[in-house]
Design a protein that fits this description.
The complex is a heterodimer of chains A (671) and B (320). Chain A is an all-alpha fold and 671 residues long. Chain A is 75% helix and 1% strand. Chain A has 3 domains: 294 residues, no CATH class; 178 residues, no CATH class; 69 residues, no CATH class. In chain A, helix 5 runs parallel beside helix 13, helix 5 runs antiparallel to helix 16 and helix 9 packs antiparallel against helix 18. With 320 residues, chain B is α/β, with parallel strands linked by helices. Chain B has 2 domains: 157 residues, 3-Layer(aba) Sandwich (D-Maltodextrin-Binding Protein, domain 2); 118 residues, Periplasmic binding protein-like II (D-Maltodextrin-Binding Protein, domain 2, 3-Layer(aba) Sandwich). In chain B, 42% of the residues lie in helices and 21% in strands. Chain B has 12 helices and 11 strands. In chain B, helix 6 crosses helix 12. The chains are: A mainly alpha (671), B alpha/beta (320). At the A-B interface, strand 1, helix 8, helix 20, helix 24 and helix 26 of A face helix 1, helix 3, strand 7 and helix 7 of B.
Chain lengths: 671, 320
């Protein structure tokens, strides 16, 4: 193992890989700092670039973005009180108050050191757990995968969303999406409407780009600009002062708070390993744990250093934890981990059972990369601290079109089909609205990722059980027995907990006005339920024409969806108290003119890509958007600048994608 | 801003007009690079096999080859897409048999063995039946005997449905009259892990896995004409007819392309038959070299089609 580790270190220290670490961590910090852009978006944006890289450089770059994002998320939490990533939400509880007390630099440095520690712990945990898991990995057959992936789907719906019912519906919709196309088990087409493109299914990467990136981008350009709070100023930006503050805080964190760092990091790793439970859960758990064990719990929420430490250390600890099931079992527990897995697939390797033994060098290289990325993040965070706030000043009128173009390449590159760019745009626009109805894109994406795993393992397990006898088969799977017991214990615990907290909920219901049947969120739920049921019925009517094993899984998913939608309707009609305070119509604050214009532009862009070619269409889109999005009066000077930006950006894209990395871009008449 | 748009529009119109006036020049085939559609992702097995042969194909044809990946549904999407390209001989397809033979029957594809012409193939996959090293089945007869005594109890894994492994399974079941349960796995890696862990009793897979799991799995029989793997008998030695059960990657053209283009492609690529460097290049990536020119391929594929036709019901029954 030491030899493999050494080889991994040597690989990571190759000049190209060092460069990859530096660039990817910087990019991760920038993307993470932008409000609404999480690690999964950052990773998926650079995925097309990694396509033609060497597999080591590709995985290193993705790890770097992941690590950088988890730290970068704290920057906007601290300076804007707007979390950059959902995992950094908790950081804002104490980071923002601390910044308002004039200690923004301290808060950022604490976050940096805690993130670094979390990163180191996540790498150590992989080093410790992976060899430990290796002998059990082969025992993970169909029934075990089914239990694990199914539990992940349930958890992401139930825990990560405000409304568990809609979270589970989101996950189920994601699973249904994977039922479209040739089924993975016996190979018969389903729900394809005769379309050849749909036979290939709805692929995961364009869906991710659509459901994550595009709604965030649209929200960014439609909302009023985030501006830095005037009260937050950096005390001094002299490097020497930064270093002395850094060493003072290091003494504090590694002295008094070392146990807190250790516990928070462990919570992060642990949560990362369980599929479906995301970063926001890890940080919440670590935060409440820190508060409980603190000697000064009253300071929490008012600028406590411990609060920042708990949150940031746990969300970086998560990174290594999330990689463990990907590498060992081929089950990604989060969208970010799924992007990482997609990159492994792209380079011709199959994560899962044999990976640890066959691809040992790659595994240990990833572990070493995590160490180095954590160090890089520490150094970058320390030496750029004076300019971190500048990230938040990137003009959205340039950022928006630039990221759209990169996403379009990302959507196209995997399969080389224009259809996938359509998926990116259409899913993005629809998700923009669904999010406002309370649906959860994270749960949806995880449904898309885990859907095929659940279907495949379910049918495999059923075939095996049928041949061997159900009881004999199950008794021969000890790992599955343990898992089932754990799941039952967990459900019992949750039911018990729900009963106990039931009384407090009843009291809370009195707060706020209760909307009428067709008002606010209550009406929206009722109407979406009524619209969805016939659609589910129509889809189900196609089922009888399919062979049994092709129809079985979609039938279960559609049945579940129908029950869940029915529950939504019943809740809207009979439980008005649950909607207390949600009188505002979900679509009330939507800028219809703005979203309409962007939708038309994006659709024109996709058509443009098909007919006039990618680079020309991109240039037109960037130029048009830059001019439209400019907030102030548009002077001829601005137009000139926009022309320069357009030409330079498209040229850079051409150099990077077509010349540098040899990534295929859609070809049209021009270019 | 309006004037800017107007100017932009004029420039675009001018460029479009200029492009339209460039008349296509006439010259002998091939006058420009040939695009080969690979209906799988970059870095997949098929892609690696193509890239190992690509420099030799380029040399024989005297023209550059550009690869274009159109993945999805195990190749169906890319192959269907190929049927929508222009039949000018400048776009070819690199796909597998028996996949096309099976898909044209079971999956209503726009392509079939009539509107496609095989051009050349240099990689062969041997179909075998494997068991774990410590399995009680020492010979193929043991497996058949046990399966006959315990109908519906023996589980046999393979990769995918309507695949070469599926055809091998269906052929074996039909020829021997045994009743076994077929379990399709996502890929060869997962299939072999399940076999090693004892989740399945046997596997229909390809010879390459014998090297991957040397000493842990063994082959009971191989579908090749003569013994290729040391110590492994062929199905024919047991009197089981497995003709047409094989798999190969193949460079394919459209039947409606210009005749001179097709003649050029088939005749030039047939000259690679005894090229030792090509064989070495294929062997270097761990694949089995097996050269077939257009005429060989037509013969093999005709056998395959006949096999699929005779097994139609068995394949359908074992798919579900």
């Amino acid at each position: 193992m030491l030899e493999l580790l050494w080889d991994g270190l040597v690989t990571c220290l190759a000049p190209i890989n060092i460069l990859a670490i530096a660039l990817s961590v910087s990019l991760g910090i920038i993307v993470g700092a932008l409000p609404g852009f999480g690690a999964s978006i950052g990773m998926i944006i650079i995925l097309p670039l990694t396509y033609t890289m060497d597999h080591t450089t590709a995985l290193i770059a993705l790890s770097g973005v992941y690590v950088g994002c988890e730290y970068g998320g704290s920057i906007s939490s601290i300076l804007l009180n707007t979390p950059g990533t959902s995992a950094a939400m908790v950081t804002a509880f104490d980071g923002y108050p601390m910044a308002r007390q004039g200690k923004a630099r301290d808060a950022l440095l604490i976050s940096n050191i805690a993130s670094f520690t979390g990163g180191i712990m996540s790498a150590l945990s992989m080093l410790f757990f992976l060899p430990l898991l290796a002998p059990f990995v082969i025992k993970f057959g169909a029934v075990e995968l089914f239990l694990l992936a199914g539990m992940g789907l349930f958890l992401v719906g139930a825990i990560s969303s405000q409304d568990p019912l809609k979270g589970i519906i989101s996950a189920a919709l994601g699973v249904f999406t994977t039922c479209i196309g040739v089924d993975a088990y016996v190979g018969n087409p389903r729900f394809t409407l005769g379309s050849i493109e749909l036979m290939g299914g709805i692929p995961f990467i364009p869906v991710m780009l659509g459901t994550f990136s595009l709604p965030s981008l649209l929200s960014m350009v439609m909302s009023t600009n985030c501006t830095l709070d005037q009260e937050i100023v950096f005390e001094k930006v002299r490097m020497r002062d930064n270093i002395s503050a850094f060493s003072r805080l290091c003494r504090l964190l590694f002295g008094k708070m070392k146990m807190l760092l250790f516990r928070s990091g462990l919570i992060g790793v642990g949560v990362g390993i369980v599929p479906g439970v995301g970063g926001s859960v890890a940080t919440m758990l670590a935060y409440s744990d820190a508060k409980r064990s603190s000697s000064e719990p009253e300071k929490f929420g008012k600028g406590s250093a411990e609060g920042i430490v708990a949150s940031e250390c746990s969300n970086n600890g998560l990174v290594g934890g999330a990689f463990i099931p990907v590498l060992a079992l081929g089950i990604p527990g989060s969208p970010a981990a799924a992007v990482f897995m997609a990159a492994i697939f792209m380079h011709g390797m199959t994560p899962g059972p044999n990976f640890l033994t066959e691809q040992g060098p790659v595994v240990y290289m990833v572990i070493m990369a995590l160490f180095l990325c954590a160090v890089m993040q520490l150094l970058l965070g320390l030496f750029t601290i004076g300019s971190l706030a500048n990230i938040l000043r990137i003009p959205s009128d340039k950022l928006f079109p630039a990221v759209i173009v990169i996403c379009a390449i990302g959507a196209y590159v995997v399969r080389g089909l224009n259809f996938d760019i359509w998926i990116f745009v259409l899913f993005g626009i629809v998700t923009y609205f669904l999010v406002r109805l309370g649906f959860n894109p994270g749960a949806y994406a995880l449904g898309v990722i885990l859907g095929p795993i659940v279907e495949r393992s379910m049918l495999e397990a059923l075939s095996l059980a049928k041949a061997k006898g159900a009881l004999v088969y199950f008794m021969s799977r000890p790992v599955a027995q343990v898992m089932l017991i754990l799941i039952i214990l967990y459900v019992v615990f949750r039911v018990y907990q729900a009963r106990r907290s039931g009384k407090t909920v009843a009291k809370k219901a009195l707060a706020g006005d209760i909307p009428g049947l067709f008002e606010g969120m209550r009406g929206a739920d009722l109407i979406s339920g009524i619209i969805m049921l016939p659609i589910i019925g129509a889809l189900a009517s196609a089922l009888p024409s399919y062979p049994v094993k092709t129809a079985m899984f979609p039938a279960i998913v559609l049945g579940l969806l129908a029950l869940l939608m029915l529950a939504v309707i019943l809740k809207a009609v009979f439980r008005p108290a649950k909607y207390a305070g949600q009188t505002a119509a979900p679509f009330a604050c939507i800028n219809w003119k703005g979203i309409g214009m962007h939708a038309v532009l994006l659709i024109a862009y996709v058509l443009g890509i098909k007919y006039i070619g990618f680079y020309v269409a991109s240039a037109v889109l960037i130029f048009v958007l830059c001019n439209i999005l400019k907030k102030d009066e548009l002077s001829s000077r601005d137009v000139l600048w926009n022309v320069v930006f357009t030409v330079v950006f498209v040229a850079v894209c051409y150099v990077i994608f077509s010349l540098g990395f040899g990534v295929a871009t859609p070809r049209g008449i021009l270019f | 801003m309006n004037t800017t748009f107007r100017k932009l529009g004029k420039v675009c119109a001018a460029v479009l007009l200029a492009l339209g006036m460039v008349a296509p020049a006439q010259a002998a085939y091939p006058e420009k690079p040939i695009t080969v559609i690979i209906p799988f992702g970059a870095g997949t097995g098929a892609d690696n096999n193509f890239r190992a042969a690509q420099p030799f194909y380029e040399e024989a044809l005297g023209v550059k080859i550009v690869t274009d990946y159109k993945a999805g549904a195990g190749g169906v999407v890319g192959a269907n897409y190929y049927m929508s390209t222009r039949p000018d001989g400048y776009t070819l397809l690199f796909y597998n048999f028996p996949h096309i033979s099976l898909q044209q029957v079971f999956q209503k594809t726009s392509y079939n063995t009539d509107n496609l012409v095989p051009i050349v193939s240099s990689v062969l996959f041997d179909e075998i039946i494997t068991v774990r090293e410590d399995s009680p089945f020492k010979t193929l007869e043991d497996l058949i005997k046990y399966a006959k005594e315990n109908p519906g109890k023996v589980t046999v894994g393979n990769t995918g449905s309507y695949s070469s492994n599926h055809l091998t399974f269906a052929s074996f079941v039909k020829e021997t009259g045994v009743d076994m349960v077929r379990i399709p796995f996502e890929n060869g890696t997962k299939l072999n892990v399940a076999l090693l862990d004892g989740q399945i009793d046997a596997a229909c897979s390809n010879a390459q896995w014998l090297t991957t799991h040397k000493g842990k799995i063994r082959a009971l029989a191989s579908a090749s004409k003569e013994r290729i793997i040391e110590g492994v008998p062929t199905f024919a030695e047991y009197g089981i007819n497995m003709d047409g059960c094989t798999m190969f990657n193949c460079l394919i053209g459209r039947a409606d392309m210009p005749k001179e283009a097709l003649d050029y492609l088939t005749s030039r690529l047939a000259t690679l038959r005894d090229n030792k460097d090509l064989a070495a290049s294929i062997a270097r990536i761990g694949s089995t070299y097996g050269f077939q020119d257009s005429n060989d391929l037509k013969e093999t594929i005709a056998k395959m089609d006949a096999k699929v036709e005779s097994l139609k019901d068995t394949i359908k029954a074992t798919a579900d």
